[in-house]
Amino acid sequence: MKTAVVTDSTAYIPKDLRDQLNIHMIPLSVIFGNEAYEEEVEITTEQFFEEVKHKPLPTTSQPSVGQFLELFEKLAKDYDAVISIHLSSGISGTYQGAVSAGEMVEGVKVYPFDSEISCRIQGFYVMEAAKMAAEGKGPDEIMARLAEMKNTVKAYFMVDDLSHLQRGGRLSGAAALIGGLLQVKPVLHFVDKMIVPFEKIRTRKKAMKRISDLLGEAVSDGSAYEAVIIQAQREEEAKEWKAELEAQYPNVEFTISYFGPVIGTHLGEGAMGLGWVKK
C-alpha cells in the first residue's frame, strides 16, 4: 500500500528535506494589504521579517478546501492513502480544510491528523510519518504511531512582545492576563489545542532557563529524545543555547529551526521556543 504524507507550510521543514523524505506541502499565506504571499513558496522568512519593519503587520490565511482537493486528487493517481498532518485546529482552520477535502476526494483515503501544535514540533510527526511511509508501513500503523508520539511531545516558547498574539486572537484568555503580562516574558505552551500562558517570568534569560529546566525534567528518564530550538531572527542566540543544552543533556539530539512568516506574524521577531519528543 502506497501512502503519501502531506503537511502545511507551518511545519517549516526545509524544501531539500521535504524532497528527500517525499513530503507534500500545502502553503498558508501572509497578506500585506491586497497582496497575498504563500510562505515557503513566494516569501522567505528573511524577506518577511524585512517587510514587517516598514509595513503594517500582515494578516494570515489558511489554504482553501479547493487547494487541498486539488492536491489530494493529484496524489490519488499514485497513492492509496494520504496522511495529512496540520497545525493545531485551535489556532487555524487548516486541519478542518484537510478534513473537508478528504471527504470530497475520490480514489484515495485521506487520514487527517491534528498535531495540536505547530512549527517544527509539528514537523516531528511529519518526518516520522514520511519515514514510515517510505518503509511501506500502512496508514493505520502510521496514525497509531503519531497518536503514541503525542504522549511525549512537549513545547514551550516565549515572545518578546505579546501584542501580536493578543491582536491576532491566538492567545487564549488574553483579555484577563494581558495587562499584567506586557512587562514580563511569559512562557507559553499549547493546552487543548490553544496557546495559553504557562508561567510569568521577568526576563528573557530566566524564561529560557525555565524552558531548559522543563526539558531536563522530561528527559531525566535517560531515554533518547529529539529536540528542536525554534527562533525568530535570533539564530546566533539559538546556536549558543543549542551548545549549552547539548552539554547538559547528552541523551537529546538537537536541531535549530525557525518561526516562519505565518507563525512569525503572531509571535513577532525575537520569539524563541523549544520542543521535544521521545524517540
From TrEMBL:
It comes from Cytobacillus spartinae. Keywords: Lipid-binding. It comes from the Bacteria. SUPFAM superfamilies: DAK1/DegV-like. This is DegV family protein. It holds the Pfam family DegV. The keyword Cell cycle does not apply.
